[in-house]
Amino acid sequence: MMRQAADTADSSWMLAAWERGLREDPLDRAVTLLCAVTGLRREDAERTELGDRDAVLATALERLAAGTAVWGCVYCVGCGEQLDVPVRPAALPRGPRYDPARPLEVEVAGVRIAFRLPDTGDLRALAGTDDPRAGRWLLLARCLPDGVDGVDEEAAAVIEAAMEKASPGAAVTLAVDCPVCAAPTVAALDVPALLWAEVQTRALALLREVHVLARAYGWTEPDVLALSPARRAAYLELAAG
Ligand SMILES: [Zn+2]
User: Fold this and answer.
1) 57 Cα to the center of ligand 1, angstroms
2) How far is the centre of ligand 1, averaged over its atoms, from the C-alpha of 83 (Å)?
3) Ligand 1 centre and the CA of 100: distance in Å?
4) How far is the CA of 84 from the centre of ligand 1 (A)?
5) Which residues lie closer than 8 Å to 17 by C-beta, 6 or more apart?
6) What is the Å distance from ligand 1's center to 177 Cα?
7) 115 close to 224: Cβ distance less than 8 angstroms
8) Ligand 1 centroid to 85 CA: how many Å?
9) How far apart are CA 174 and CA 87, in angstroms?
10) At the N or C end, where does the chain have fewer CB atoms within 10 A?
11) Ligand 1 mean position, distance from CA 181 (Å)
12) How many CB atoms lie within 10 A of CB 201?
């Protein structure tokens, strides 16, 4: 099916993000996408909590995908088979968001524990940790301003539940049964990766259009990108005929 072409505004951020994202790892790429969509500075994008980050990226994905499903990729826990799962961008959660004016805290056994929500910088700090248990406590240590001294398993679970409640968009999962071995897999949905795949596809399609029209009419890249999608499509048709 032919998709609707990206509009002019989308074209410029998409191409800039694609060019930079090509040589980045997934965490840097998520920051690049957020900066491209919002105009945030990198250090602010880095500190944007994951639910907010993914809500913004999901909205950009929804606009680019224009009503079509995109494909999320998970690996079967049973046999390792790669499973492509259709995801509707419109169905991705966008809130409820926490109120930034109110401090985030929980009360466990009469003790108040303040916390903040994880951001991309936290994920970067965890990247070298293979042990999930160590990773969990490292994340908590980063997100509790008063540290994890005196925080036990019970308190940790309460804090994690409160984090998820404050930012449900940061922990979206995809559930799928493997068609090969029938094992059920529940995997975290990677919104930046979904948007990146879409940006890559569309950036390459856009460059192909620039190539065809630049050759046919002697236009420059900015000339072609400045055309509305309808005009671009019409000229492409003329150039092909
Ligand atoms: Zn399987």
Assistant:
1) 30
2) 8
3) 42
4) 12
5) 32, 33, 35, 36, 37, 199
6) 8
7) no
8) 13
9) 9
10) N
11) 4
12) 14
DSSP 12-75: HHHHHHHHHHTTS-HHHHHHHHHHHHH---HHHHHTSBHHHHHHHHHHHHHHHHTT--EEEEEE
Cα of 196 from ligand 1 centre, angstroms: 26
Q: Across-strand partners of 73?
A: 84
Q: Rounded CA gap, 213 and 85, in Å?
A: 35
> pLDDT tens string for the chain (241 positions)?
334 445 666 788 899 999 999 999 999 999 999 999 999 999 999 999 998 999 999 999 999 988 889 998 889 999 999 998 899 998 887 766 677 777 899 999 999 999 999 999 999 999 888 888 899 999 999 999 999 998 999 999 999 999 988 887 777 788 889 999 999 998 888 999 999 999 999 999 999 999 999 999 999 998 998 898 899 999 999 998 8
| Cα–Cα distance measured from residue 22 to residue 211, given in angstroms and rounded to the nearest whole number | 20
Which of 156, 144, 192, 199 is CA-nearest to residue 46? 192
Ligand 1 center–CA 72 separation, angstroms: 16
Give the pair of three-digit tokens for residue 34: 């957020």
As a residue count, the chain comes to: 241
List all residues 6 or more positions away from 155 whose beta carbon is below 8 Å from its beta carbon: 106, 108, 109, 111, 113
Place of tokens 């910088």: 121
